[in-house]
Amino acid sequence: MSNLIKISPSILSADFSKLGSEVISLERAGADYIHIDVMDGHFVPNLTIGPEVIKKLRPLTKKIFDVHLMISPVDNFIKDFANAGADIITFHPEATSDTLKTISLIRKENKKVGISLKPNSKIQLIEKYLNEIDLVLIMSVEPGFAGQKFMPEVLEKTKTLKEIIKRENLNIDIEIDGGINFENCSLAKKAGANILVSGSTIFKENKGDLKKNIELLRTN
Ligand code: DX5
Ligand code: ZN
Q1: I need a surface site. Which of 7, 71, 133, 215 has the fewest CB within 10 A?
Q2: Is the CB of 141 under 6 A from ligand 1?
Q3: Which residues are annotated as catalytic?
Q4: 1 found inside a domain
Q5: Residue-wise pLDDT tens for the chain (220 aa)?
Q6: CA of 159 to the centre of ligand 2 (A)
Q7: What is the total count of domains within the chain?
């Protein structure tokens, strides 16, 4: 894990009628990763995009595709998302009956493994898998929609996780997702997050000035 802050804009807040050019604009604006929220209308009460869309976006950029799967059951789709061009595949432990198996399915595809914790999901749920994964995605809103309010209570969990990672000398990124803005981004960093996801702030603040918004989230 590096100490440099990475910004992973969520295309959930992009204009879906021109997703390709939005991704290119994000790359030009200095995004580190592209965060892709995949929802199934079952694990979360919203529907977004699937592997076919990701496959079409893949040739447009070399940026890391940070794919956040909010689908259940998740196992049957891992291969499709890997083939579509995902670089990091993050799943929720509640979306599988066998977390280790899901981890190994992602590893078999040579992709980075992320596990996501919803606001009320405890670290204990994933502690025994920390040796096997590359990233923990802490949700700071209930998964499902962009534009929700940041839940400051997850900062404590972020701090605790960071302490465990340090203590055990693990190589794991901490990503935070949901309601990140120019004020709370510094709290998230201080708590230990090194990758910030943002949809609304990046696409809507400062009249949609992507470059400025990415830079502000990075430096604030
Ligand atoms: C919510 C998604 C988030 C969301 C972020 O389920 O996982 O990635 O789109 O959007 P904002 O930054 O608007 O909360
Ligand atoms: Zn997300």
Answers
A1: 215
A2: yes
A3: 37, 177
A4: no
A5: 446 999 999 999 999 999 999 999 999 999 999 999 999 999 999 999 999 999 999 999 999 999 999 999 999 999 999 999 999 999 999 999 999 999 999 999 999 999 999 999 999 999 999 999 999 999 999 999 999 999 999 999 999 999 999 999 999 999 999 999 999 999 999 999 999 999 999 999 999 999 999 999 999 9
A6: 20
A7: 1
Please give the C-alpha separations between residue 173 and each of 1, 20, 27, 204, 217, in angstroms, as whole numbers: 5, 27, 21, 27, 17
Range of the domain at 141: 6-219
pTM of the model: 0.98
Q: Is residue 112 part of a domain?
A: yes
- CA of residue 6 to ligand 2 center, whole Å: 15
- Residue whose Cα lies nearest atom 1 of ligand 1: it is 143
Q: How far apart are CA 132 and CA 182, in angstroms?
A: 33
Whether the CB of 118 sits within 6 Å of ligand 1: no
CB 177 near ligand 1, within 6 Å: yes
